[in-house]
Amino acid sequence: MTSFLHSPLLLSIATALAVPVLFAADAGDKKNAPIVNKTRAPLMPVIQGSWWTVAKEPQLGEFYSPKYEPVDFAIWQAADGTWQIWSCIRSCKLPKGTRLFHRWEGRSLTDTNWKAMGVVMQADESLGETPGGLQAPYVFQHDGRYIMFYGDWANICKAESKDGKTFERVIQPGGKTAMFTNGPSEINTRDPMVLKIGGQWHCYYTAHPGNEGVDYCRTSPDLKTWSESHTVSSGGRAAGSLASAECPFVIAPQPGHFYLLRTFNYFARPKTLVYYSADPLNFGQDQDDQFLLAQLPVAAPEVFQHEGQYFVAALLPELKGIRIAKLGWEPIKRPSAAR
């Protein structure tokens, strides 16, 4: 069975120095200065081999605009063995807003240019969703069903599927799809991902109160009742922007070792920060000196495991498609204690 995990896409220069130093693409300011790894992370994710492009040229029909951009997406294997990608496409021609969900399908994970299957979901205003505001689907399996978490611009919502292709919204007791939010639509609660740790489900997501990106987490024993929000990451070298904590994604390649990915730049020169912690609810608040592990040249990475191999999917730098590469986890070398 395939395990669906979102995780880092760490393309870094790991060295055997006393303190590993990870260099960004360029230098000269806070966001691009070399990173000195002072964490106790045991592993460094490393991209292996070349990328292959799986999704381009969505079939948008009447909603087409030459300005379209596939952004946050989900990738998984459906019940019939085919591979699915649902992506938020922004800058579409809609009466209100610009975003909807589009689907691609591939017969094999390693195939290129998966088939564009067209528009699969738009916001439903009658259920309280913001018109043209669908964002960031995330799909995982539980109890024989495929579960999708997604944002509607103001809330985190849920849909379910038996076959991993056709999803139905889950209507909450109040008659709307919203499960929870961190505030009004102006702070844009969005970008959910879900990880089960012990007996608790952890939903990580972002919002930008005061135009500053912050990553949050809520926990649940049953995917229905949710705790109040915990702030898990904020500030640091990416601070100063409403997009400073995009696409939060947490993965645990080893029990008790958690890696958080935070994208803060999408176009042309994509950048994602990687934080490490032994506590899945604390990756530091303006504490890069303790938690920051690396900076990666990717945007909106999704990490998943198939047949024992990790893979990473990410946006094309020009924001016109989605690509995949293999991902490995290499031990971080540290000097032996002095005698």
In short:
The chain is built from 1 helix and 22 strands. It is mostly beta strands.
Structure description:
The chain has 339 residues and is mainly β. It has one domain (21-331): Glycosyl hydrolase domain, family 43 (Tachylectin-2, Chain A, 5 Propeller), CATH 2.115.10.20. The chain contains 1 helix and 22 strands. It has a 4-stranded antiparallel β-sheet with strand order 3-22-21-20, with no helix packed on it. It has a 4-stranded antiparallel β-sheet with strand order 4-5-6-7, with no helix packed on it. Residues 1-28 have low confidence and may be disordered.
**H/E topology pattern:** EEEEEEEEEEEEEEEEEEHEEEE
CATH T-level fold name: Tachylectin-2, Chain A
Number of helices: 1
CATH superfamily: Glycosyl hydrolase domain, family 43
The overall average pLDDT, rounded, is 90
Per the principal axes of the C-alpha atoms, what is the gross shape?
A: globular
Query: Over all CA atoms, what is the radius of gyration?
Result: 19 Å
> Could you name the CATH class?
Mainly Beta
| Count of distinct structural domains | 1
Please bin the fraction of helical residues: under 10%
* pLDDT < 50 runs, ≥5 residues: 1-28
Please list the strands of the largest sheet in the order they lie side by side.
3-22-21-20
CATH architecture: 5 Propeller
Strand content: over 45%
End-to-end distance = 47 Å
The structure class reads mainly beta
Task: Pick out its properties.
four-stranded antiparallel β-sheet, Tachylectin-2, Chain A, mainly beta, 1% helix, 1 helix
Helix and strand layout, with pairings?
Elements: E1 21-22, E2 35-36, E3 43-56, E4 69-77, E5 83-90, E6 100-106, E7 115-121, E8 135-142, E9 145-151, E10 156-161, E11 168-169, E12 190-197, E13 200-207, E14 214-220, E15 230-234, E16 246-254, E17 257-265, E18 271-277, H1 288-291, E19 292-296, E20 302-306, E21 309-315, E22 321-331
Antiparallel strand pairs: 1-2, 3-22, 4-5, 5-6, 6-7, 8-9, 9-10, 10-11, 12-13, 13-14, 14-15, 16-17, 17-18, 18-19, 20-21, 21-22
